[in-house]
Amino acid sequence: MRKRRARELTKRWLLLVLVCGSFLFAFLYPLPETKSSVHTVVILTVGNDRKLDDLHRLARDTVFSNTRSARISAQVLVYEGKFRPWFNTSTADDATVVQASREVERLRYGSHSFELFSGIYGASVKPRALRWLTQPDQAWIDFGWIIEPDVVFTGSWQTLFEKYESDSSDLIAFNTTFRYSNKTAWNHWPSCTYCRGLPNWCKQSALLPAFRISRNFAAAAVAHLSTSTRSSGHHEAFLPTFLTVNSDTFSFRDLGPDVAYMRWRPAFDFDAVPRLAPIRRDALYHPVKSLEMYRNLSQASLEA
Known about the structure:
- This protein has 11 helices and 10 strands.
- By secondary structure, it is α/β, with parallel strands linked by helices.
- The chain has a single domain, classed as Spore Coat Polysaccharide Biosynthesis Protein SpsA, Chain A (Alpha-Beta Complex), CATH 3.90.550.
- A 7-stranded mixed beta sheet has the order 3-2-1-4-7-6-8, sandwiched between helices. It has a 3-stranded mixed beta sheet with strand order 5-10-9, covered by helices on one side.
- α2 runs parallel beside α11.
- The longest helix is centred in the first third of the chain and has 27 residues.
- It is globular and about 45 Å long.
- Keywords: Membrane, Transmembrane, Transmembrane helix.
């Protein structure tokens, strides 16, 4: 009886020692932390037209102030041309400011890739934004929302971003593939050298005045463009098509079911105000080239 009791006590002591030892080991040698959250940045691209500085400044204030309380890890302003003092004042005092140069991006991407990918105006801000996103210092980033300053969302940017926070899609944008499927004219199809020879179902297009892209997909796209001498295309043709060709790795989500898109031509200006009533809620208006028009649309989103 005494021997049995002694054995039971011994077992309990051994169990206690093991438990205490486990806690001590875990305290002294903790496991590395696992990734618990998604890191998303907002990137505003600002061109070199100084006549639009007031509009661009308002866009920066609107977008950045509306995303400060959202789960956005950083705010980035990519600009072309000379630095302007307002880039990091007011609501952008803690934003990262990145300079874009056509000469540098042409060198990084290669002349053929850059000329086609950058678009009809040859702007370097989007190519630079993608390349910034893929740099080693930005390895902590998962996604980037890239927004042009002439875009107004008649809803809450914060709500829009949070809506897709748990979505792992590599590209979230307006899918406009109808341009190809119904054979309507689009100047960028013939110039897309990457698209040549692909089956029709691979040829995708998207509107990209405001879109979200994953760092992984951006890295793959930049790597292709910067190493290929004759395989590029306008970014609104190349990016969705390149993704579709590599759909085993990357995924595309259409913004269309959730967000309305209001025409791209002609530009929204002050004269358009009477024709906009009622302003559509939760819609992207683009391009908005009038300061007054931008204010009116932004105010409508606050009052709704």
